[in-house]
Amino acid sequence: MTMNVVGASICDEELIVQGEARDIQLPNTEHVSQISVDIGGSLAKVVYFSRRAGTKGGRLNFRKFETEKIDDCIEFIRRLLEESRAHRPGHELVIKATGGGAHLYYDRFRDTLGVNIEREDEMDCLITGLNFLITEIPFEVFTYSETDPMCFEETPADKFPYMLVNIGSGVSILKVTSATTFERISGTSLGGGTLWGLLSLLTGAKTFDEMLEASQEGDNRNVDMLVGDIYGTDYSKIGLKSTTIASSMGKVFKKNVDKRQFRPQDISRSLLYMVSNNIGQIAYLNAQAHGLDRIYFGGCFIRGHPITMNTLSYAINFWSKGSIKALFLRHEGYLGAVGAFMKHRSSRRNSRSFTLTESLTQKLAATELTDVESTIAQDTLDVDAVDAADSD
Amino acid sequence: MTMNVVGASICDEELIVQGEARDIQLPNTEHVSQISVDIGGSLAKVVYFSRRAGTKGGRLNFRKFETEKIDDCIEFIRRLLEESRAHRPGHELVIKATGGGAHLYYDRFRDTLGVNIEREDEMDCLITGLNFLITEIPFEVFTYSETDPMCFEETPADKFPYMLVNIGSGVSILKVTSATTFERISGTSLGGGTLWGLLSLLTGAKTFDEMLEASQEGDNRNVDMLVGDIYGTDYSKIGLKSTTIASSMGKVFKKNVDKRQFRPQDISRSLLYMVSNNIGQIAYLNAQAHGLDRIYFGGCFIRGHPITMNTLSYAINFWSKGSIKALFLRHEGYLGAVGAFMKHRSSRRNSRSFTLTESLTQKLAATELTDVESTIAQDTLDVDAVDAADSD
After folding, report:
1. Which of A172, A229, A248, A269 to mutate to test the interface with B (most CBs of B within 10 A)?
2. N or C, which terminus of chain A has less Cβ within 10 Å?
3. Chain A to chain B, count of Cβ pairs less than 8 Å apart?
4. Using a CB-CB distance cutoff of 8 angstroms, which residues of chain A are in contact with residue B281?
5. What is the pLDDT of residues A160-198, one digit of tens each?
6. Closest partner residue to A286 among B188, B259, B285, by Cβ?
7. Which residues form a coiled coil (chains A, B) (predicted)?
8. Domain coordinates of chain B in residue numbers?
């Protein structure tokens, strides 16, 4: 097929709850023609293209599974393949796979699905996916502030160089100097997996969404040690306000305190701040070292969560004194999967043909943008294919 | 008094267990003449000079209290003052105080002790104390490696510039360009208080020493997600070994796992690595940004603990590719208190007169230096005063 696509729109119809939707019910008018998967340490992300019969259109679909339940992900893809084969018998599909799990689970995917699994480099896919989203999808990139939580950015004339901070279980930091040249310059093991792991032990929360929800009701000052707790006032000589966090969780370690007095909500807020602040600080220091003034934050850690984006933005703004910009993406969690998708021979060739549909502009203009989370959490992206030929 | 001192030696006689030794029993031949205190968020550090009657000698004594039990610290100082007054009636002592608690507890100290409390700036004291220790106390500064855990360093001809990373409840990072000029360039809230707080909740450990002990028996691979756990192998293209930690605590968040299966020892090791690695990385990035190639690590977090020093050293060496040196101190936790002590008018004037005694050289040469912890954990420093006159 040639996915020469001239229109893309973002649908926010039904939300499929992560890991729960096992059935795939494509409308009769659609069929699946291309699939990619990005298998990380905690989550496996699937992107697939479903073509609308009789039209040039179709959509990119985005789905997440827990890596621990990789068999659910394989079963999901098996059904996609089944649908596809039913529609076009004899046409053999290829699956593009990236992330560590593309290696760890290679045999299992190949043996269960009986199709060709083509592995693509993880960092390459992240950048390919990001470049595609930045360049071709309008209303994809935005800055966050409390007063303007979703301020969309025009693609700048000089896209390069920039930095990508991809926050999954762990964090990778990449410097990107052109569409095809990049380098992993740093990273930290203090990432999403750290927050999820600590909070699942400390709060009993069962899902990351529960944790984020709890953090919204929490007050970190009940567990964090602030400058004011140590000084009684600001430490103004060196510019530390009394409200500055001096020590994350620093109020907890006291011998004669009943540990049960610390609320899960407060702990959730504190650790979310801790991890986000720390990533923001390390991102800033690396951006400074490499002279980069645009930082894209990607990965499933963010999930359009306002406190997370606010903390990352605040950290970058604080440390860089406003000279470096923190940028977010509506498809933040799918950079690698989208990049792997673009590696499908024909998609790649025509990737520059994705453009905005008018309907998207209007739809977004009418959206209550303060509700950033739900605006981000769409799971499909409508595209119109110029050439509907599904072979080649 | 004039503390013009020409000999200093380090005694490793009796170890007083932190916070437990409430009585002070100076030998009859000694009396206290100068006191300083550095009150941080978690620990209050006391330094006092006890003079040996009939000689020119005396010693610097080092004691720690939990800030939460600040009254124990005040009581301890009250007894020191009592001793001193008994020995020299009518002679009024001044206490030099620094750290946030010098402000927060100022009234309580003044009212309970009935003496003049002179407050000194915390950062200034840290640097004054560090410069004194670097310059005047031989066998104070060392580098750490597994094969040579305590490799002492000669004071370099060019001491400045250098960086100090002071790790208490939180972390302060200072750039020092001369004996009197310095700047707090960075810091992180992810410090000792974070580790102590998290481990007291997660492992039930009651003291930091218990936590460190547990960490020595732990295997972080049971809770950390390694590159090999995600990839099955190295990710050699970008230089990540399969043993590299991809996500601290990244193995914990799994829905169907009994959380009790995670051993306190493994969690302790993981979080000690996490905090130490992170501080090492942020220290490196700041050193790089400011062109500094010598980093002193101070603060009560380190406590001469081999895993901590090894992790900090490893992180600095890894990130800087060997170009930056991590330096440790035998009196790491007392920089601020020593600095405040040096602010006593006469001490400061004569601070350069502390020198090594021959006996110290011999004593250290005979020490089993592999036992770094006990070598570091001395609580006194013998000094010989040239001028025994106690007035001035």
Report:
1. A248
2. C
3. 214
4. 186, 188, 282
5. 999 999 999 999 999 999 999 999 999 999 999 999 999
6. B285
7. none
8. 1-14+21-139+335-345, 141-206+267-329, 362-392
The identity of residue A15, as a single letter, is L
Contact A189 B250 (CB under 8 A): yes
Per-residue pLDDT reduced to its tens digit, B270-285: 999 999 999 999 999 9
Amino acid B391: pLDDT: 36
Please check whether the domain covering B141-206+267-329 is classified as CATH 3.40.50.920.
Answer: no
Q: What is the pTM for the complete model shown?
A: 0.87
On the question of pLDDT at A15 being above 90, the answer is no
Specify burial of residue A334 (Cβ count, 10 A radius: 0-12, 13-18, 19+).
buried
Fold: same for B1-14+21-139+335-345 and B141-206+267-329: yes
Taking a C-beta distance cutoff of 8 angstroms, is the pair B70, B44 a contact? yes
Residue of B121, B126, B230 best to disrupt the A interface, most CBs of A under 10 A: B230
Beta bridge partners of B96: B36, B118
User: Can you list the positions of beta strands (E) in A120-229?
Assistant: 141-143, 151-152, 162-167, 171-176, 182-188, 225-226
Q: What is the distance between the alpha carbons of residues B97 and B117, in angstroms, rounded to a whole number?
A: 7
What span, in angstroms and rounded, lies between the C-alpha atoms of A343 and A125?
A: 8
Candidates 3.90.1010.10, 3.30.420.510, 3.30.70.1130, 1.10.10.10; correct CATH number of A1-14+21-139+335-345?
3.30.420.510
Given a cut of 80, is residue A381 above it in pLDDT? Answer: no
Beta-carbon contacts of residue A205 (< 8 Å; ≥ 6 apart): A199, A211, A214, A264, A268
- Cβ-based burial of B161 (10 A; exposed 0-12, middle 13-18, buried ≥19): middle
Q: Are strands A162-167 and A57-66 parallel, antiparallel or unpaired?
A: unpaired
* Chain A residues touching B100 at Cβ < 8 A: 227, 230-232, 235
A281·B170 Cβ contact <8 A = no
- Kindly provide the ipTM of the predicted complex, given to two decimals: 0.86
